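Question thread 4412

I'm putting together a teaching handout and wanted feedback from people who do this every day. The idea is simple: show students a protein as raw sequence, then show them the structure tokens that encode its fold, then repeat with a second protein so they can compare. Below is the first pair exactly as I plan to print it.
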Amino acid sequence: MIVNTILILLATATSGVICYFTGTYTTWWWVLIFVLFIPILYIIWFGIYLIPLWIASLFMNIKIKKGKPQPENGSKICYWFVRQTSYVVPFLFRIHFTRSGEFPKEKSMIVSNHTSNFDPMPILYYTKGQPVTCVTKPGNLTMPIAGPFIYNCNFIEIDRDNDFNAVKSIVRASKALSKNLASVYICPEGTRNHHPENGLMDFKGGSFKIAFKAKCPITVVAIKNTHKVGKQFWYRNTRVFVDVCEVIPYEKYKDMNSQELAHYCKHLIEKKLAERG
């Protein structure tokens, strides 16, 4: 939250400086101007913050195109910026998280439903004490600014149209867990659910082979309302519910097959979402 705090302080200080040098502070309505300027200046300072990240991403992109492999442990500097930005974005888009349950301190495979690109934000927000590797679609690693950073954070791309590459991704994710390098976050639905009001899509059993190979706990998380953020952030806050349904130890699921485990996790999330209404 360091970057977010600095941006707030800079926006507040800049607003005060503007009010002082324009003489606005001598009027009765200076407080209104001072307060209204803060969110505008926050956005401006956030844009300035992105400039050096954009420049750094250009240099990282050059190395990636030359075939630089992803670091097994992930770059600590890149991960720091990714996590810090994950605190700024909810503030910028007026997202308020409400959590129930506790994320485990030990490394685990984290699974959740998937309705928005904002879904990883609460996962990163609530796992502050440990690195998290996200399993993502290939296109995300080539996004401007963010792509090179998450590439160097060892985010794992999975090509669901290529079984051989998908298996390689599963092995990489299980190794990250087995070596205790990071928790792994994956959405077993495989893609965003654009109509969450119609219920969850099928959970892909193959996603859970990561946990079987790593013999690690599975943290099942229900996320509600992230799909509303993009539609309403400009005029209202969004309350996003983040519920840890269950942390499933390996001993509990080791005798299940991957499809049975997928159904079980899907049921836990469906139940929690129904409770939230």
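The second pair follows. I'd like the answer to focus on this one:
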Amino acid sequence: MKKILVIEDEHILQKNILKILKAEGFEAIGAANGYEGIDRARAEHPDLIVCDIMMPELDGYGVLKTLQADRETALIPFIFLTAKTDRSDMRQGIELGADDYLVKPFDADELLRALETRFKKQDSLLDRMAHLSDELTRLQQFLNAKDGLMENLDRELRRPMSNIKVALTMLQTKNTPEARDRYLQILEEEFSREISLLNQVSEMQKLLTPENVSLLCQFNLLQGRG
């Protein structure tokens, strides 16, 4: 059930809005002024706020500025109620971060259409954020797996190179044909091993795509670094 906070100092209007919202299945809560509205927004974490602009002490602009400055409430969709139709007033609210306007007087259909539109946009935004989060997770898995693979290959490539150096040194110091044949055999084996590892690097780079890494991690066949 969606929760909607209505911040309106006109008691009868607030009561009517709350009645409409409850009849449509929303959880509706009210606040009689800007300061109370801020407190209720922080305590209740509503899914959307409907707020009058012209209120004593703290107007709707002040409410919006305060909530926008708070990480816990900054992303709550915000619809202004106003008796003004001046474009500069509407532009001011939009520039502050309001999502929509309802001009008084309005009927139940106008209110509900505005809410439906805003919730659809909010759901679309949340879907996009979830998709981006999934993509970032896949990318991080890919980068971690690639880094881990490169580290392992680096270690493996160093081993035959070390053996090759030793064999070359021993070839320079050994005089018997048997010893030379032995170290020549070692050189051939280590060169073959090095070529094989380099070929593996080439093949793994083709296989190591974000999609493949994600699938391998899903079945615990590949452990990325933390």
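Top answer:
Good format. For the second protein you could add a caption like this: The two ends are 38 Å apart (CA to CA). The helical segments are 11-23, 34-44, 60-68, 87-96, 108-173, 177-207, 210-218.
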